[in-house]
Design brief:
Shape: globular
Distance between the termini: 24 Å
Number of helices: 5
Strand order of the largest sheet: 1-2-3-4-5
Number of domains: 1
CATH architecture: 3-Layer(aba) Sandwich
């Protein structure tokens, strides 16, 4: 079971099948999924894809967290993940997706901080990676804001730029 996290403005809890409709609605916004390959145009394939990811056991301490504002805990803002890269590992990926109304408010970086701490302090990972489309300036800013750095040698997935944070990097930012 994944832990819950609270930040100054946000509440993160393990994503469940009850979040399915909100996740599907978020993904239907073409601006939200513009930089992410997926079955977004086929409603049946899209639902099967999201449902399978929700029901999968990703391993101890890994998975998805749904993000909500502390002031409106029933309002879905998006999700953040910590998963085996390319569903297999050995590297572990951090990623985020938020509804468009939550963009530009610092929610992604705020949600990422306790997940990064969980990765290094609880799971004792040596590093985390993020594969980000080079055109996705918003996600690149989030990665840089939380202390990740570009690393051309790291795995990132075809067409993506790799960002990496090591446990030493995490310690170096005063965590």
């Amino acid at each position: 079971m994944l832990p819950d996290f609270s930040t100054e403005r946000l509440f993160l809890r393990p994503r469940t099948i009850a979040d399915l409709d909100a996740c599907l609605a978020m993904d239907r916004d073409r601006e939200v999924t513009r930089f992410i390959a997926g079955p977004w145009a086929d409603p049946k394939a899209h639902e099967a894809f999201v449902r399978a990811r929700m029901l999968r056991d990703w391993g101890a301490g890994l998975g998805y967290w749904s993000i909500a504002a502390r002031s409106a805990p029933d309002r879905f803002l998006g999700w953040i993940l910590l998963l085996p890269l390319d569903d297999e590992g050995p590297d572990v990926e951090i990623g985020w997706r938020l509804v468009r109304a939550a963009w530009g408010l610092g929610h992604a970086s705020e949600a990422a901080r306790p997940v990064v701490a969980h990765a290094f302090d609880t799971l004792r990972l040596s590093r985390i990676v993020a594969g980000i489309d080079p055109g996705n300036a918003g996600s690149i800013r989030v990665a840089e804001k939380i202390g990740m750095r570009r690393d051309a040698a790291a795995p990132a997935g075809t067409g993506y730029t790799a960002f990496v944070m090591t446990r030493d990097d995490f310690r170096g930012i005063g965590a």
